[in-house]
């Protein structure tokens, strides 16, 4: 994009290759890592129980970090690698973290009874205020992946006062057309459910070349997530409608996300087109677009260091953690970026980021970053 600089991080070895992927196959090792200080809750909502895992307690007037996983996963399979990454501890010590599992997707979930109606994507979003109220959060910063990103975007559209910021990884704002729907139905007849889900998580090139990571997730999706419950979630996600958003000024009474948003996608991810389109529909003054090189379909798993740095910068843009170390970004940026100071006593305003090839004189919040 014109006026935007290409930013590159120093080389980082992707995670979950070889030995690391072998360790992932051991569910006791993978799913139990650093879980000792997390507390589990089952929260009643208008559309059934939600399994939630939380660490810490609300800190002053700061929002909670609330996560929502992709279809085929749960909070552990989706976020353990990211939140257990060493550099993330600098962030999590400042915020309470709340992981939400979609109904019936948590480890050890009982199978839903015959005839159970899985909540729609809109209803999944409408379950989240019960979580916010249960823990007394004033507002949240959401991190969602794939289906979870769609749910959090819906949540922010319906309940904008509860959402201060969003990190949306691999979001697809579009519902499936008839051709896509037919292809999905055909795939379900010729492939196992884990393999069908894998084609949603990874592009074909990654399925072929990244065999250790893919095999690890194939095993975990098949063994850890209840398959009948997963099928219901998968069916509901594939029947979703278009996310009702438009860039302000493009159509009368356009709906958009009012909070700061960071869109993230790997350069070899199936969701790349959808994320690019979502970026075109959001307010450019509050949106950051982060395209991550060499991260594939699960950037939070394969490149947690780079994503952590970007998340720190995103938080700084909202006025939090002004003194957080920014080693990779600091070395890679060729121009200064402004940030607001931390304000614990009141809800901070999104600050202005300045970045362009002409320097600090021009303001552009939409940054296309290759890292």
UniProtKB/TrEMBL annotation:
GO biological process, one term: cell differentiation
Segments of skewed composition (Low complexity): 331-342
Region feature (Disordered): 331-371
Biased composition annotated in UniProt, kind: Polar residues: 349-371
Keywords of the record: Cytoplasm, Developmental protein, Differentiation, Neurogenesis, Wnt signaling pathway
Cellular compartments per GO CC: cytosol; membrane
Intracellular or extracellular location(s): Cytoplasm, Cytosol
The UniProt record lists the keyword Cytoplasm: yes
InterPro entries: AB_hydrolase_fold (IPR029058), NDRG (IPR004142)
Signal peptide location: none
Functional note: Contributes to the regulation of the Wnt signaling pathway. Down-regulates CTNNB1-mediated transcriptional activation of target genes. May be involved in neuron differentiation.
Family designation: Belongs to the NDRG family.
Protein name: Protein NDRG2
